[in-house]
C-alpha cells in the first residue's frame, strides 16, 4: 500500500487563543486531512478550529545550526519584557 | 408490547447492530486515522442505541443490557442492511452512506416528535450522523473516482448493498398509527436524491435491483445475525449479572 502524505495539525483550543501544533497524521488530501484531524485530535473537545498543513511545506531549522541560531539569545536578559508591570485584565500575554 | 416500545426497539436495534459491525473495523482499517474515525462513528451509533434501548426498557421494566444481551435473534428488529458481515473498506463506506443518509433524514424529522425522549435523542444524534454521512461521502467519491481497482470495488459494494435499502423505508401499520413516529416511506425520495447525487459524482453507475430483501423489522434476519449476536452476547450470557 502506498503511504499517504503527512500533514501537521494545529488546533485552536478556544476562541482568543492561537492554533497550537498538536501532532501529525496521514491523509490522501487536504479535505481528508481535516477530517482525520477532527477524529484523531478533537474527539475529546480539544478544539474549536483546526488547521492542517502539508508537512513537506514546512521549512524547519536544522539541529546543526543550533549554536548560531539559538545560543546567542541566552545572555540577552534585556530582551525579556520583565521590566514593567502587565496591566490587570490582560490575559494570554 | 406497546407500539412505542417496538418503535424505540427498531431504531435502537438498527444503531446497536450497526455499531457492532463498525467496531469490528477497529485495528483493521486501512490506516490508523481511519481506525479512530470508524471507532468514533461506532461509538456515536452505540450511544444512540443505548438511549433508545434504555427508553424501550423503561416501558417494560428491562435494562438496556437486558435488551442488548438477553434477547433472541428473532426478537431483534433491525434492518438486514446493518447486520450483513463486513467486506472490504468500500463495502463499509457504501453501507455507511446508505444507512447514515437514512438516519440523518429520520432523526431530522424525529426532532419534531411530540415524544420528548425521541426528539431529544434525535436532536443529539442528527449532528453525529451528519458527520457520518460526510465521512462516507468523502470516501465514496475518492474510491469511485480513484484508481480502476478502487472504482471496481466501490461499484461492487454499492451494487451489493442496494437490495437491502428498500427495507429502511418500509412503512407498516405501526408507524402509521403511532403519532410520535416518523413514517420512513416519506424519506425515500430525498434519500435517493442525496445518495444518487454522491454516486453520480463518484463516477460509479446507479445500482439497480430486481429484488429487495425484507424481514428485519419482523425479526427475520440473514444467516449472519446469529454469529453477530453470539459475539455480542456471549460474555454477558456466560457471566450473567457480572459487573466491573
UniProtKB/TrEMBL annotation, chain A:
Short name of any one Pfam family annotated for the protein: PaaB
Official protein name in the record: 1,2-phenylacetyl-CoA epoxidase subunit B
Organism: Kribbella antibiotica
Lineage: Bacteria, Bacillati, Actinomycetota, Actinomycetes, Propionibacteriales
TrEMBL record, chain B:
Protein's GO biological process: phenylacetate catabolic process
One Pfam family cited in the UniProt record for this chain: PaaA_PaaC
Gene3D superfamilies on file: 1.20.1260.10
Domain of life: Bacteria
Record's GO cellular component terms: cytosol
Residue ranges that the Swiss-Prot or TrEMBL entry lists as coiled coil: none
Name the record gives this protein: Phenylacetate-CoA oxygenase subunit PaaI
Organism: Kribbella antibiotica
Amino acid at each position: 500500500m502506498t503511504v499517504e502524505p503527512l500533514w501537521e495539525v494545529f488546533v485552536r483550543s478556544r476562541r482568543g487563543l492561537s492554533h497550537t501544533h498538536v501532532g501529525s497524521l496521514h491523509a490522501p488530501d487536504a479535505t481528508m486531512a481535516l477530517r482525520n484531524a477532527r477524529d484523531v485530535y478533537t474527539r475529546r473537545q480539544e478544539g474549536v478550529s483546526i488547521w492542517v498543513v502539508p508537512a513537506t511545506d514546512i521549512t524547519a531549522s536544522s539541529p546543526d545550526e543550533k549554536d548560531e541560531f539559538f545560543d546567542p539569545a541566552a545572555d540577552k536578559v534585556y530582551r525579556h519584557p520583565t521590566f514593567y508591570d502587565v496591566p490587570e485584565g490582560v490575559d494570554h500575554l | 408490547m406497546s407500539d412505542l416500545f417496538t418503535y424505540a426497539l427498531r431504531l435502537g436495534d438498527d444503531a446497536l447492530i450497526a455499531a457492532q459491525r463498525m467496531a469490528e473495523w477497529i485495528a483493521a482499517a486501512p490506516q490508523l486515522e481511519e481506525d479512530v474515525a470508524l471507532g468514533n462513528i461506532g461509538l456515536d451509533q452505540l450511544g444512540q442505541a443505548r438511549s433508545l434501548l434504555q427508553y424501550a426498557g423503561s416501558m417494560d421494566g428491562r435494562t438496556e443490557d437486558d435488551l442488548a444481551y438477553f434477547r433472541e435473534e428473532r426478537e431483534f428488529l433491525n434492518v438486514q442492511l446493518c447486520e450483513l458481515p463486513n467486506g472490504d473498506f468500500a463495502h463499509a463506506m457504501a453501507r455507511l452512506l446508505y444507512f447514515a443518509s437514512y438516519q440523518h433524514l429520520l432523526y431530522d424529522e424525529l426532532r419534531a416528535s411530540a415524544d420528548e425522549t425521541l426528539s431529544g435523542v434525535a436532536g443529539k444524534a442528527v449532528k453525529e450522523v451528519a458527520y457520518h454521512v460526510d465521512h462516507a461521502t468523502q470516501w465514496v467519491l475518492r474510491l469511485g473516482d480513484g484508481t480502476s481497482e478502487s472504482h471496481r470495488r466501490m461499484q461492487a459494494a454499492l451494487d451489493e448493498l442496494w437490495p437491502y435499502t428498500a427495507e429502511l423505508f418500509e412503512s407498516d401499520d405501526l408507524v402509521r398509527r403511532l403519532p410520535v413516529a416518523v413514517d420512513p416511506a416519506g424519506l425515500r425520495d430525498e434519500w435517493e436524491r442525496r445518495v444518487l447525487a454522491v454516486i453520480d459524482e463518484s463516477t460509479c453507475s446507479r445500482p439497480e435491483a430486481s429484488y429487495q430483501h425484507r424481514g428485519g423489522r419482523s425479526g427475520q434476519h440473514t444467516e449472519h445475525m446469529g454469529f453477530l449476536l453470539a459475539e455480542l452476547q456471549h460474555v454477558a450470557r456466560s457471566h450473567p449479572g457480572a459487573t466491573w
